[in-house]
Amino acid sequence: MSKHDESRRKFLVGAAVGAGTVATGGLPADALAQAQTAAVTPAPATAHDHEHAAEGALRAFFNQDDAATIEAFAERLMPGAAGKPGARDANVINYIDLALAGAYSDQQDFYRRGLAALDQYCRTTYNKSFVELSPAQQDEVITALEAGKAAGFTYPSAAAFFNTMRTHTIEGMFADPVYGGNKDFAGWRLVGFPGAQPMFTTADMQSREAFTRSPMAGLQAKVTR
């Protein structure tokens, strides 16, 4: 992993912890608020949902090309490395896809237009789609988006598209797996969050050391049995 990748990873992990995602074990406050006011409330992700995501079958919202772009984009925001899961390992694409088919359905047009502008920018600048670019070129595109310097974006703006993707990547990495991401507790394991535990021993309760037991269960345990 390059220093650039490691720096990005540390930033996103810090942002997730600061937002309270890990502490709540669910969607961050802004996501919960949207879930409560959205016209359609998402059903928890089931084993069937995860199976489809793993096989690359039809998704709830994205077509395969858009899903590949989102997956590649999220992976550059949260790159994986040996022993350190990234966005692809955590199945962040599945989280975003299910959210856009449910609680975030009001952002469907935002994503459609943003992805179209992103594709046009990449083809104009590099004569390739985003997924065809090298990791270094993908980082250049993302940097241009963050700085609002990527041409061709109107609604959403380049910066708004970047910020939304960053937020949703963090959510997909660290929210409870019931929402479709954080596969195998990848995000929780990364930051040492134990998730729901069936019991805590007296020694656990009295210890002043960081709790290090592996995650045992999330809300998804109720829907995948």
Q: What would you say this structure looks like, in words?
A:
Helices cover 54% and strands 0% of the residues. The protein has 225 residues and is mainly α. It has one domain.
Q: Oligomeric form of this entry?
A: single chain
Low-confidence stretches: 21-56
Task: Tell me what portion of residues adopts beta-strand conformation.
Answer: under 5%
Give the helix level as a range of percent: 40-55%
- The number of domains is 1
- Major sheet description: none
Radius of gyration from the alpha-carbon trace, in angstroms: 18 Å
> How many helical elements?
11
Overall geometric form: elongated
Distance between the termini: 37 Å
Element order, helices and strands?
HHHHHHHHHHH
Please identify the structural class as seen in this structure. mainly alpha
Total beta strands: 0
Mean pLDDT across all residues, rounded? Answer: 79
